[in-house]
Write a structure and sequence with these properties.
The chain is of the alpha/beta class. It is built from 17 helices and eleven strands. It has helices spanning about 5-15, 55-65, 80-90, 100-110, 130, 155-160, 175-185, 200-210, 220-235, 250-255, 270-275, 315-325, 325-335, 345-355, 360-365, 380-395, 400-415, and strands spanning about 40-45, 70-75, 95-100, 135, 140, 145, 150-155, 190, 260-265, 280-285, 300-305.
Length: about 425
C-alpha cells in the first residue's frame, strides 16, 4: 500500500477508533501460496438478510466454484460494513471482493482502500454512464455497479378514480399539485413520503431538488428553494401529512398501504409489498418541475476489489466480479437482489419478463448518483445540511429560503 493510501486511511480511521478493536477476516487463507488457483476468497456484502440457503449466497458459491476457489462470504449492515472495510484495510486484511452502497465508494477510494477497474482490467463499457458515475472519481472508476434501484410514485387507482383524476395528466408539479387538491376535496389523502432528518430524507428530497434544476453545490439557489417550497406548501394545504417529518421510507409505505393515499414516493424494493396491498396500484416517474422525468438518486451497490498486499489474488477477484456482473449472469444477480440491471441489454430482458419494470428502467435511466458531479466525499457534508433545512422548513421553524441559506453556509464551510 502506498504512503498516500496509508496516510488517508489513518486520517479517516481516527474518529472510528471509538468503535473499539475489531478483528477482520483474513483474505490470505489460500494455503499460504497466494496462488490464483484454489484457496479461499472472502466476499463482504451489505445483505445480512440473506442466509446461506438464499439464492444470493448460492450464487456467490457458484461464482467461486466457477473460478476454482472457495468463497467465504460475510454480510453486514451498510454502516457497519464501511467501518469494517476501513479497519480491515488499515490492518492489511481486506476482503478479496467488497460490495458496498454506491455513496461509500468515494470514501473508500479516497482512503486508498480500493483498486480501480482499470488496474484490474474490468470492462465497464456496457454500464450506463449515469450509474458508473456514482463510483467514479477524477475519471477513474472504483468498481462495477451490481444493479440499481431508485424512486418513483406509486398511486392508488381507486383513490384517483374516486377523485376524478386521470393519472395520465400528471406530467409536472402543477398538474400533480392539482391532482392532490382534487383528491383532498374528495375526502381522501394526497401524498406521503419520507422527510426524516437522515440520509433517507435527502434521498427522497433529491428527485424534487434535481427536478427543479438545482445543483447540490448551491443549496440556496432559486431552483432549490422552489423544491422545498413545493413540499412545504403540500403540508400547509393538507396534501401531505405532518408525519412525513418523521417518516422513514418504511413508515411512509405503511401509510400508503392503508389505502387512503393517492400517491407515495418510494422505491423498487416495495414492489413485493405493493402486490400484497390489497388494492390496484400503478407507478409513474417522479415528474420534474416543468415536465419530463426528474433525476432520482441511484441506490444500489458497487462490486469492488480492495487493495491487497498479495497482488496475485487480483486475477481470481476479477473473475468473481465478472461472474456477478457480466451480461450472461447479471440477469440472475439483479433478479436475486430485486434491482434494475446496469446495462441496457439486461434491462430489456427484465422488461420482457415483467412489463411492470418498464417504469423503473426508465427512472433508472434518468437517475443520478448522489456523489456524481465529482462531489465524492463532499456529498455527505452537503446532504446533512440539506436534510436539516428540509426539517426546519416543514416543521415551520424557518422559511424554505432561510432554511436553505443556512444549509448553504454550513455546506460551504464543511466542504472547503
Amino acid at each position: 500500500m502506498s504512503t498516500l493510501r496509508r496516510r488517508l486511511l489513518g486520517a479517516i480511521l481516527v474518529p472510528l477508533a471509538v468503535v473499539g478493536t475489531q478483528t477482520a477476516c483474513s483474505s490470505s487463507d489460500d494455503g499460504g501460496t497466494g496462488s490464483p488457483g484454489g484457496g479461499t476468497y472472502t466476499i463482504w456484502d451489505p445483505y445480512p438478510q440473506y442466509d446461506d440457503s438464499s439464492a444470493w449466497v448460492q450464487l456467490l458459491g457458484k461464482c467461486g466454484t466457477d473460478a476454482g476457489v472457495t468463497v467465504k462470504r460475510s454480510g453486514y449492515d451498510t454502516s457497519d460494513l464501511t467501518n469494517k472495510a476501513l479497519l480491515a484495510a488499515q490492518q492489511g486484511n481486506s476482503p478479496d471482493v467488497l460490495i458496498v452502497d454506491n455513496p461509500v465508494v468515494s470514501t473508500l477510494a479516497e482512503a486508498g482502500v480500493l483498486t480501480t477497474t482499470e488496474e484490474n482490467k474490468l470492462d465497464t463499457s456496457a454500464i450506463s454512464p449515469n450509474l458508473i458515475a456514482a463510483g467514479t472519481i477524477a475519471g477513474k472508476s472504483y468498481g462495477v455497479p451490481i444493479g440499481a434501484n431508485t424512486l418513483a410514485l406509486y398511486y392508488n387507482k381507486a383513490v384517483l378514480q374516486a377523485a376524478g383524476v386521470d393519472v395520465a395528466i400528471v406530467k409536472d408539479w402543477p398538474s400533480l399539485t392539482a391532482a392532490l387538491g382534487r383528491v383532498k376535496a374528495a375526502g381522501k389523502k394526497g401524498i406521503t413520503f419520507s422527510a426524516i432528518g437522515t440520509e433517507e430524507g435527502s434521498f427522497q428530497f433529491l428527485p424534487w431538488y434535481w427536478g427543479s434544476g438545482a445543483d447540490l453545490r448551491k443549496l440556496d439557489s432559486p431552483e432549490a428553494i422552489s423544491a422545498l417550497q413545493l413540499w412545504n406548501d403540500w403540508l400547509k394545504q393538507g396534501y401531505a401529512p405532518n408525519s412525513v417529518i418523521n417518516n422513514t421510507q418504511t413508515t411512509s409505505w405503511q401509510e400508503f398501504a392503508t389505502g387512503e393515499y393517492a400517491f407515495a414516493e418510494n422505491g423498487t424494493w416495495q414492489l413485493g409489498n405493493a402486490k400484497k396491498a390489497g388494492f390496484e396500484y400503478g407507478i409513474i416517474p417522479v415528474p420534474a418541475k416543468n415536465g419530463g422525468t426528474a433525476p432520482a438518486p441511484t441506490g444500489g451497490e458497487f462490486v469492488s476489489v480492495p487493495v491487497q498486499k498479495n497482488t496475485g489474488r487480483y486475477e481470481v477477484s476479477k473473475k468473481l466480479v465478472q461472474c456477478l456482473t457480466n451480461t450472461d449472469n447479471s440477469y440472475t444477480t439483479v433478479s436475486t437482489l430485486n434491482y434494475v440491471a446496469p446495462t441496457t441489454a439486461v434491462q430489456e430482458k427484465q422488461v420482457a419478463a415483467n412489463a411492470e419494470l418498464k417504469v423503473w428502467v426508465e427512472a433508472v435511466k434518468a437517475a443520478k448518483g448522489r456523489t456524481s458531479d465529482n462531489l465524492g466525499t463532499k456529498y455527505p457534508k452537503i446532504s446533512q445540511p440539506m436534510w436539516t433545512a428540509v426539517q426546519a422548513a416543514l416543521s415551520g421553524s424557518k422559511s424554505p429560503a432561510d432554511a436553505l441559506a443556512a444549509a448553504q453556509t454550513a455546506a460551504a464551510a464543511a466542504t472547503k
